[in-house]
Amino acid sequence: MGAVERNGYRFEPEYSVISQNGAIHVYDKGELVEEIKFSFSGKFPELNQIEQIIDTYCEQRGI
Predict the structure, then answer these.
(1) pTM, whole model, 2 decimals?
(2) 48 — phi, psi (to 5°)?
């Protein structure tokens, strides 16, 4: 699962199958802005879950 770009921001997801948690690193112009932590079940987080987290983040911040 690669990075997602939205409105000039870059969202880079990473996750641990063993811990069943992950984070999405948010970058603006190459600088880290925030880390969004999340949990999931199964072998990996679903793409829909990642997209929803990014959508919610963008909506809440007017991005």
Answers:
(1) 0.88
(2) -60, -40
